[in-house]
């Protein structure tokens, strides 16, 4: 597990202003690139409170980091980028904060449609999206429809998501198939379980990044990160910049992955 150097950088892009850095200016990380990167975008509220700002300002600033990180994933042609936007446990937070998060999600889906199309990004949601507010759900469906023919990096947004809940829902699907369709319990293997998860069809996570200083998974992609490499940083999500993403990818490329076996001589 790696950690990056802490930084007190306040050079944060305005969420309403797209990055103007040319793609060619971004160096390609050394080593092999992961197919699927997942990020726990932690620390928005703490970043804001540490600057005497309301927590919701941290979430607003975090949108700029989402934009930058997504653009870089697209330029590097990563197969998939999964972002932990809202956990199933986050509903315990104050209603005002949750309402603002839903507003930000709806605004993001509307304002980023052109960018998603220009970058050829596919869009998928995982989690209990069906429980979202009707206005937000309507924009989810519209944006997914617009991106359905894209062929580039798959941007996966985990909203109202919990890893245990996902596995429980997959189990219920398999039980239903056994009862109603005659699925034999002996035929249930890892491949069949994976095919009934929200991430069906995606490669397993190669690299998990977490910002904000905490070193835990927090009920995120429990099945999919079985053999993922982990990279932690003390930086809060609004501070996470392209150079941090590049460092995480470079560190990944320098690691030896054994998947429980031995490295050949």
UniProtKB/TrEMBL annotation:
Residues bound to Mg(2+): 42, 229
Any GO molecular function: ditrans,polycis-polyprenyl diphosphate synthase [(2E,6E)-farnesyl diphosphate specific] activity
Cofactor(s) the protein needs: Mg(2+)
Ranges annotated as biased composition (Polar residues): 1-14
Keywords, alphabetical: Magnesium, Metal-binding, Transferase
Alphabetical list of InterPro entries matching this protein: UPP_synth-like, UPP_synth-like_CS, UPP_synth-like_sf
Top-rank EC class of the record's enzyme: transferase
Keyword flag Transferase: yes
The enzyme's E.C. designation: 2.5.1.-
Residues annotated to bind substrate: 43-47, 55, 59, 87-89, 91, 93, 210, 216-218
Note accompanying the cofactor annotation: Binds 2 magnesium ions per subunit.
Gene Ontology BP term (one): polyprenol biosynthetic process
Active site, per annotation: 42, 90 (proton acceptor)
Biased composition (Low complexity): 15-30
Region (Disordered): 1-33
SUPFAM superfamilies in the record: Undecaprenyl diphosphate synthase (SSF64005)
Family: Belongs to the UPP synthase family.
Described function: Catalyzes the condensation of isopentenyl diphosphate (IPP) with allylic pyrophosphates generating different type of terpenoids.
HAMAP family for the chain: ISPT (MF_01139)
Subunit text: Homodimer.
Record-linked PANTHER family: DEHYDRODOLICHYL DIPHOSPHATE SYNTHASE 2 (PTHR10291:SF0), DEHYDRODOLICHYL DIPHOSPHATE SYNTHASE FAMILY MEMBER (PTHR10291)
Protein name: Isoprenyl transferase
């Amino acid at each position: 597990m790696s950690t990056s150097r802490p930084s007190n950088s306040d050079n944060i892009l305005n969420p309403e202003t797209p990055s103007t850095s040319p793609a060619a200016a971004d160096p390609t990380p050394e080593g092999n690139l992961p197919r699927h990167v997942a990020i726990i975008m932690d620390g928005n509220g703490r970043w804001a409170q540490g600057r005497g700002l309301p927590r919701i300002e941290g979430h607003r600033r975090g949108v700029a980091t989402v934009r930058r990180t997504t653009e870089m994933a697209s330029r590097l042609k990563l197969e998939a980028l999964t972002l932990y936007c809202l956990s199933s446990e986050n509903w315990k937070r104050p209603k005002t904060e949750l309402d603002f998060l839903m507003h930000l999600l709806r605004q993001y889906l509307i304002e980023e449609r052109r960018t998603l199309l220009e970058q050829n990004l596919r869009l998928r949601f995982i989690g209990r999206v069906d429980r979202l507010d009707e206005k937000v759900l309507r924009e989810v469906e519209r944006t997914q429809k617009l991106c359905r023919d894209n062929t580039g990096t798959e941007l996966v947004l985990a909203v109202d998501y919990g890893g245990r809940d996902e596995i429980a829902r997959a189990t219920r699907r398999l039980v239903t198939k056994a009862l109603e369709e005659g699925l034999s319990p002996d035929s249930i293997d890892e491949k069949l379980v994976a095919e009934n998860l929200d991430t069906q069809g995606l490669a397993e996570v190669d690299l998990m990044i977490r910002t904000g200083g905490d070193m835990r998974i927090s009920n995120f992609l429990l099945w999919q990160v079985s053999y993922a490499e982990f990279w932690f940083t003390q930086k809060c999500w609004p501070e996470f910049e392209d150079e941090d993403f590049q460092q995480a990818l470079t560190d990944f490329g320098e690691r030896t992955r054994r998947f429980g076996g031995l490295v050949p001589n």
